[in-house]
User: Which sequence fits this backbone?
């Protein structure tokens, strides 16, 4: 019997949506292997998240719920996850490709002496082998991979799998020994109630050099806000990040973040190859640029040739009206 | 304090990737290589730690082809004390195999701190630093945007989804560096001259078969051609129409 372990991420008592997507990817794999999915969460005060996980489609839920796990420690958590995987004979271990997933799963892979596919956009079990697809060169190429060691581990790109649902899988609590912690989180400072994480946002509005001065990013922020609270995030091109106008966490592209929102609006961004790599998988792309020859128009579904200072305020007003109307 | 910086040469970020004839790798013909951007922050941080301590050493290491001498020499010119080239002709795309080779070498070294870029922008694996830490039994903080030494531990900050984390980590440790951590220095003429006299070792290295083998590599599907809606603010109503009715994006 193959057992697929999905490590779920809980922050401030809340289950993160990409973890539900990871459970759904696990269920697809389980259909192919004929196995079951165990959702495993670590933390303190996991009852609410455990309830959500029991309705996620997973066959069973295991909660390592202990005061000693209130703060994330990559090394201590990895030991607990790896031990659980060994004891339960896990054939595959999945997690969302988030800051926590990127920190935790490589350590688990090392402890299990196994390979790991990060940022996978597809996982499969065919012909007795686990396979995966992942972007390389920030999406300029796509790699098809096959596991040669066991178990199979993968972190999954958010916004890429549809969450599933189920009814009341059994929830089991375990009390693992936490042990010494080499690294531990001391404090988490939220970035403000309205700040939508760039890679989770349904809409991304990005600005570039065409805005001419850092304070003109206000236009970008206003356009993002027009979509309503919690919908749109602000992005930036490498040029304006390197110029110090915007923080690096907002950079979209090869040395920044790769985003795949439903709607991507590029304002005053010419569309260097490094930038295109970071946003070309958005479902719909809108470009606003003064230069009709700008490369951004080659990937955009819809383009407006024009001055950002004239077009963006009009678009902001129109989006506000459209959202209010809806 | 003895610091090891792991670096990698990668295709320049403005490279248009072409698939090689074997269908499993990229075509290196005419490709310009450069030091992986994130590794610049790791090297700079190592140099700053050494300057701050006023003692210790900075060794820069890479697993790669002979041509990677160029990036190692550049690191020496910026201030590293010693360079080690673990020579392999294979493209290092599998983090399990890479970590095996690096850890075999790291275990022969005196080392309190390993600094890496958060990921190499070729295979984009983003997993080597925490892997190394788990194999070495070191502490680890990933994707730091701030880091400081305080006695036998370090403090660091990193950006997570919608928030910032402050962490503590015991030494010895592995740190992966994010853009924005510092402002990397460039080599000056004095540094370039001094680099010529610094120790440079080449070690023939066996790379294990990958734990994740590439069965094929492809270019991503192209996007269907879009259209210019119009010029200036007058085009906005037509754009809203298209977003609502065609794209169903509103």
Assistant:
């Amino acid at each position: 019997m193959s057992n697929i372990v999905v490590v779920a991420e809980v922050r401030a008592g809340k289950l993160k949506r990409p973890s539900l997507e990871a459970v759904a990817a696990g269920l697809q794999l389980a259909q192919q292997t004929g196995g079951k999915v165990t959702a495993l969460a670590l933390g303190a005060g996991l009852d609410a998240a455990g309830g959500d996980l029991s309705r996620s489609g997973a066959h069973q839920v295991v909660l390592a719920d202990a005061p000693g796990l209130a703060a994330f420690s990559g090394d201590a958590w990895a030991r607990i996850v790896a031990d659980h995987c060994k004891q339960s004979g896990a054939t595959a271990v999945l997690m969302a490709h988030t800051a926590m997933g990127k920190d935790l799963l490589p350590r688990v892979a090392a402890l299990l002496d196994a390979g790991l596919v990060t940022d996978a956009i597809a996982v499969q079990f065919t012909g007795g082998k686990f396979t995966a697809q992942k972007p390389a060169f920030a999406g300029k190429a796509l790699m098809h991979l096959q596991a040669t060691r066991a178990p199979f581990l993968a972190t999954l790109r958010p916004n890429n799998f549809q969450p599933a649902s189920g009814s009341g899988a059994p929830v089991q609590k375990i009390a693992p020994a936490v042990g010494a912690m080499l690294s531990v989180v001391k404090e988490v400072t939220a970035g403000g109630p309205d700040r939508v994480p760039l890679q989770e946002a349904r809409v991304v509005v990005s600005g570039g050099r065409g805005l001419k001065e850092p304070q003109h990013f206000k236009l970008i922020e206003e356009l993002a806000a027009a979509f309503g609270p919690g919908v749109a995030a602000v992005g930036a091109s490498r040029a304006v990040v390197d110029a110090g106008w915007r923080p690096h966490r907002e950079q979209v592209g090869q040395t920044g973040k790769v985003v795949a929102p439903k709607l991507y609006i590029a304002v005053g961004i010419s569309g260097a190859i490094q930038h295109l790599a970071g946003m070309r998988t958005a479902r719909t792309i809108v470009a606003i640029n003064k230069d009709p020859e700008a490369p951004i128009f080659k990937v955009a579904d819809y383009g407006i040739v024009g001055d950002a200072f004239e077009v963006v305020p009009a678009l902001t007003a129109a989006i506000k009206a459209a959202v209010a109307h809806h | 304090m003895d610091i090891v910086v792991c670096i990698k040469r990668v295709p320049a970020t403005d490279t248009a990737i072409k698939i090689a004839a074997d269908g499993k790798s990229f075509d290196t013909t005419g490709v310009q290589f450069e030091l992986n951007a994130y590794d610049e922050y790791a090297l700079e941080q190592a140099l700053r730690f050494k300057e701050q301590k006023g003692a210790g050493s900075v060794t820069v290491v890479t697993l790669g082809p002979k041509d990677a001498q160029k990036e190692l020499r550049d690191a020496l010119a910026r201030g590293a004390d010693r360079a080690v080239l673990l020579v392999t002709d294979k493209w290092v795309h599998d983090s399990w195999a890479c970590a095996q080779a690096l850890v075999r070498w790291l275990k022969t070294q005196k080392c309190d701190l390993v600094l890496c870029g958060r990921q190499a922008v070729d295979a984009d694996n983003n997993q080597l630093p925490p892997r190394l830490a788990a194999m070495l039994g070191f502490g680890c903080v990933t994707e730091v945007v701030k880091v400081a030494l305080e006695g036998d531990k370090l403090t660091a900050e990193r950006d997570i989804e919608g928030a910032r984390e402050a962490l503590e980590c015991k030494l010895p440790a592995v740190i992966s560096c994010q853009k924005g951590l510092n402002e990397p220095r460039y080599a000056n003429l004095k540094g370039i001259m001094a680099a010529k006299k610094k120790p440079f070792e080449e070690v023939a290295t066996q790379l294990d078969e990958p734990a994740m083998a590439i069965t094929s590599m492809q270019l991503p599907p192209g996007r269907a051609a879009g259209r210019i809606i119009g010029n200036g603010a007058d085009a906005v109503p037509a754009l809203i129409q298209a977003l609502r009715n065609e794209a169903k994006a509103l």
Notes: The mean pLDDT of chain A is 95. The two ends of chain A are 49 Å apart (CA to CA).
